[in-house]
């Protein structure tokens, strides 16, 4: 495709901390329900996957599309995930209370990808977790634009502030 400037648009890398977004929405719907007793069972779909993908596509063509989660509990998202050609990264927690596996893997993948693929101009991270602040600094130091997406109630204000742009999930799914 030819563009007026003669240059191809820079691509987007979209990374989901999927359980983080799902848990935030579940907690907003029914506070206190997304605890250990309910976390490790089949989850009802709450995330509007298509809407987040459409937002990411406004920044350029999506070249990398990866979501990190323990997918055994999120099978009901199968159709939406497959329709959007998301590369699903399965993470089995090493213990019942284990956390941060998705955070660490997402950060490692994002850094490796921007190092390997110079055509990535925008990185979109779907999470409200402050654990992503160090990777935000690295992404911006590499000259890439960082867009965050998270829920209003569960997003750490420092994480949101570390992004070049932050969009609240509720705003992007609200009917126009």
TrEMBL record:
InterPro entries: NYN. Residues 12-169 form the NYN domain. It holds the Pfam family NYN. PANTHER family: HTH OST-TYPE DOMAIN-CONTAINING PROTEIN, SLR1870 PROTEIN. This is NYN domain-containing protein.
């Amino acid at each position: 495709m030819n563009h007026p400037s003669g240059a191809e648009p820079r691509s987007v890398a979209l990374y989901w901390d999927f359980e983080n977004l799902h848990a935030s929405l579940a907690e907003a719907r029914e506070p206190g329900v997304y605890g250990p007793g309910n976390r490790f069972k089949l989850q009802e779909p709450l995330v509007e996957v298509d809407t987040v993908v459409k937002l990411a596509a406004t920044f350029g063509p999506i070249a990398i599309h990866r979501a990190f989660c323990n997918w055994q509990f999120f099978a009901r998202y199968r159709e939406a995930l497959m329709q959007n050609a998301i590369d699903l990264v399965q993470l089995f927690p090493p213990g019942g209370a284990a956390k941060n596996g998705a955070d660490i893997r997402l950060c490692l993948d994002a850094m490796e990808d921007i190092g390997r693929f110079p055509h990535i101009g925008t990185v979109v991270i779907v999470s409200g977790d402050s654990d992503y602040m160090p990777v935000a600094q690295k992404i911006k130091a590499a000259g890439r634009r960082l867009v965050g997406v998270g829920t209003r109630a569960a997003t750490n204000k420092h994480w949101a502030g570390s992004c070049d742009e932050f969009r609240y999930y509720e705003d992007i799914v609200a009917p126009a």
